[in-house]
Amino acid sequence: MSREADVIVVGAGLSGLIAAREVLAAGLEPLVLEADERVGGRILTEEALPGVHLELGAQWIGDTHHRMEALAGELGIELYPQFEEGETSYELDGRVLRGEAFHSAYGEDMAGVERVLRTLDRMAAEVSAEQPWAAPHADEWDRITVGQWYDAQGLSPIARSMLEICTVGILAVPTVEVSLLGLLVNVVSCGVSADLLSESEGGAQTRRFIGGTSQIPLRLAAALGERVVLRSPVLQIEHAPDQVTVTCRGGLVARGRRVVVALAPTLAGRIMYDPPLPGQRDQLTQRMPQASALKAFAIYDEPFWRADGLNGQLISAPGPARMSNDSGMPEDSGGPGIILAFLEGESARVAGAWPQAQRQDALRAELGRHFGPRAAQPDLIVEGAWVERQWTRGCYNANPGPCGWIHFGQALTAPIGPISWAATETAAAWSGYMEGAVEAGQRAAREVIEVLT
Amino acid sequence: MSREADVIVVGAGLSGLIAAREVLAAGLEPLVLEADERVGGRILTEEALPGVHLELGAQWIGDTHHRMEALAGELGIELYPQFEEGETSYELDGRVLRGEAFHSAYGEDMAGVERVLRTLDRMAAEVSAEQPWAAPHADEWDRITVGQWYDAQGLSPIARSMLEICTVGILAVPTVEVSLLGLLVNVVSCGVSADLLSESEGGAQTRRFIGGTSQIPLRLAAALGERVVLRSPVLQIEHAPDQVTVTCRGGLVARGRRVVVALAPTLAGRIMYDPPLPGQRDQLTQRMPQASALKAFAIYDEPFWRADGLNGQLISAPGPARMSNDSGMPEDSGGPGIILAFLEGESARVAGAWPQAQRQDALRAELGRHFGPRAAQPDLIVEGAWVERQWTRGCYNANPGPCGWIHFGQALTAPIGPISWAATETAAAWSGYMEGAVEAGQRAAREVIEVLT
């Protein structure tokens, strides 16, 4: 019931596992404590049918996710491209329209969306992801919500609706819950707005892992061996300048010289710290709720929409899914057809609370409207809901509300005594993505390695 | 290390103590577990000098706080009126102006404030404090922030500033952090806007307790005797339909048939529940941060401002205190003069983070501007900061951000199995005040008594 190590890592999500790996590579002993009965955190591959891997959590990497690309290479996991060919189906004005028809009907509206994205990029240019509170307009931009700012951009209803859908696609909360500065932090952390907020999230979602994303945490954990302990929710962290004592539910006590807390901020805030953490840190973690996302996979015998010239993507105002894509296996695998429907933000909350039959009926009807009657009859629907999962409590990630960045942002990554902070929310690049989880884990590991070696 | 009772109460703040008292009165055995080494929660009287009671926390009751009035009567605690005579000092346009001069210069601006308060009262008339999400305009009003709505009311800069100061005086966060619906819940919970948002908070702050507010929790706890256990932070609540097992740091395990969690929502959310709570409840407690307030008492040999025709109240845009009042002892006691300076919302965060000497220098200078050179030389300044207190983590209370009420509000008071929820945040009347703490404690007690007797 007692373990010793140099560095205790709380959380065996990607960020924690990476931190532990780096610590070990530096000649120090890590010990990873995981609350759940599995590793991976927000990465969770489910083999719904033999050889059919559904990513209930993190699914893609983008073209510039070099840390993830290198990691996959090291671990011997191969990539395949996201299927993108064909037209998207739109439902923004009551009708269902295919890409070309939609764009010729609403070209001017979409130009409005483009204009706003360019404005966001100009604004983001003055924001640093490491110190958003230092941006010249930080004080102004952290006091207006994204929704409020969008409303003031002179957009047509169709353009405003499109922008809401695409933004909720990354924030996974209504745009009135996040400040404009908060959105700009996301934009600058990920490059340019078009990579993040355009219909296809082009830059962020281009490739997947053959065999499933879960292989990554599983292989990382395998290399750590008995240094990863499952079913050990951390209740308390006692800390002194060069000493930590971490107590788990069930009685395990882990002692070390440093601790890396690799949990989403709201979960990190639930641990009892002794001595207690400074007020600024505590107020921050009270203000970074996990977002609301639910993925629903509709599985068919084949991806019949491809032959029909459709890419499996929908953009829909009525929902319940506001976006979707083709989440099939590699093209030459002859696998089934899979449409992944995203319920994000309000949709996840409202339709997520419906009885499953009601939600899936609505989803089938929606898929039928977009991809034809065959789409209304999937063989199987598999849902991945994260709010109910005790050790995650929401996806994809967390953004503070208004004034959160300017008043409390500095506490997000600043170490406190022997405590360092990881998790994708603390990343400067690609925060919210696997790439960010790796970056944050590496940065936290550097902090502890520098003082311990 | 093991105790049994019918009802375990978590938290010996006012709400928890009232719940325990009601449970005991109904012939059932309560057991109160308190994390801190004292009872009272956000009630904390400090005897700064012999006979001089400073209320670092809850200080007043209002004219319609009948539950508190009755409680004080039962406990044999006498009341005395808040000193109100004289003029308020204003600093909204760079100058310091006394009441009459200010109102004759800015009568039109203040009429604008009054107009907005009347509008709020009209809107509040359609909101129920028990079910704010059911209000006809709930969906619209929960998606705009109070600050955004104020900005759209065509107010002069002076009027807008006044409204911000008075509103932050109750919310203790910038008005852009709370939705309009959230403000209306506060208004309807407390009667009319003028009782809450006017300069003097007339209705809510009319009387104080001779000898200090802390007498109330102390006497309630004394009557409960060994049924109150201090220094027992709750780590975990295991629950089944008619059974709860509550585990504290230090090893105490308390078993009962029901549990009343009488903690602010954000603190209730830190406990590990087994089985885990529904996602809606968890997402709610991720979204109800404790606000930011700091009280600073400046103590003088006598209340010299009274002879000068001033009531000890200031309204100041530059701050650091945006409001103040005369917090002296009863008029005939011959006690010292005490100005209570409120640092709330942004002031609490910004000036609260300054070194104490810098903050108190700024405060002395401000008091001097308003109440004369003598006010710049207090004998003593005593501060009550709540964000740093581990078992409170912010004052005065908590409000959810945008969409919080419409998407998660129903989880605030709804019992979950054998778990009931108390604390002033869960009250329908005078939420945020001691009156609300009592109401909520009584309501939670009723829930458990009904099923257990």
UniProtKB/TrEMBL annotation, chains A, B:
InterPro entries: Amino_oxidase, FAD/NAD-bd_sf, Flavin_amine_oxidase, Flavin_MAO. The keyword Oxidoreductase applies. It comes from the Bacteria. Keywords: Oxidoreductase. Pfam families: Amino_oxidase (PF01593). Its cofactor is FAD. The keyword Oxidoreductase applies. GO terms for molecular function: oxidoreductase activity. Belongs to the flavin monoamine oxidase family. This is Monoamine oxidase. It comes from Luteipulveratus mongoliensis.
